[in-house]
């Protein structure tokens, strides 16, 4: 009796976890390898030790900005991050971002990782709003955000300078009540 073939395009359950020291080599790729970051995230060379210093300082889990690794049982797929955006003198929201390694893209991992991050932030912080932005041409990330429960709010004109040109972005958000209503 032969075993059923395993579909390797569908990852084992996606999980988020704190950054371990061994993950710093993976994170370094995002600062030194344009192909690792992808077309919409390469902003040029930057300090290759920035994450190592932050990891030594707070394990990349700070009060105003943090990062978790996106993993399955046997693979590290990339990371999710969030940072505080002050919206008035007495309030803030979180903005989130994600970057997956090239071999993890297009497999639904980003959608699930962003769902899990939303759930985590609403469970462990008092924020009522989580937002995410992406370039207007990054259709894959827009689909992932929509599948993760985010609502498109609008276009931000000339918001990002990348590869010699100003680029328009799209802003998405999800509110606490929406996420709770949808079981996210």
Task: Describe, in plain words, how this protein is organized in 3D.
- The protein is α+β, with helices and mostly antiparallel strands.
- The chain has one domain: Aminopeptidase, CATH 3.40.630.
- Helices cover 29% and strands 35% of the residues.
- The protein has six helices and seven strands, in the order E-H-H-H-E-E-E-H-E-H-E-E-H.
- Strands 1-2-3-4-5-7-6 form a seven-stranded mixed sheet, sandwiched between helices.
- The longest helix has 16 residues, at 109-124.
- It is globular.
- Mean pLDDT is 90; it is low at 1-8.
- This is RimJ/RimL family protein N-acetyltransferase.
- One of its GO terms (molecular function) is acyltransferase activity, transferring groups other than amino-acyl groups.
- It comes from Actinomadura namibiensis.
């Amino acid at each position: 009796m032969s075993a059923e073939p395993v579909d390797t395009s569908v990852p084992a359950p996606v999980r988020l976890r704190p950054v371990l020291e061994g993950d710093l080599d993976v994170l370094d790729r995002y600062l030194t390898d344009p192909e690792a970051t992808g077309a919409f995230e390469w902003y040029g060379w930057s300090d290759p030790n920035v994450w190592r210093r932050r990891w030594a300082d707070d394990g990349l889990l700070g009060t105003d900005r943090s990062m978790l690794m996106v993993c399955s049982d046997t693979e590290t797929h990339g990371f999710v991050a969030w940072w505080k955006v002050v919206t008035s003198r007495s309030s803030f929201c979180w903005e989130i971002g994600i970057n997956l390694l090239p071999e993890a893209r297009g497999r639904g991992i980003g959608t699930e990782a962003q769902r899990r991050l939303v759930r985590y932030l609403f469970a462990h912080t008092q924020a009522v709003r989580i937002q995410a932005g992406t370039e207007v041409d990054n259709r894959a990330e827009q689909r992932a955000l929509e599948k993760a429960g985010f609502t498109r709010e609008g276009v931000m004109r000339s918001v990002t300078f990348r590869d010699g040109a100003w680029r328009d972005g799209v802003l998405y958000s999800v509110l606490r009540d929406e996420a709770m209503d949808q079981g996210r």
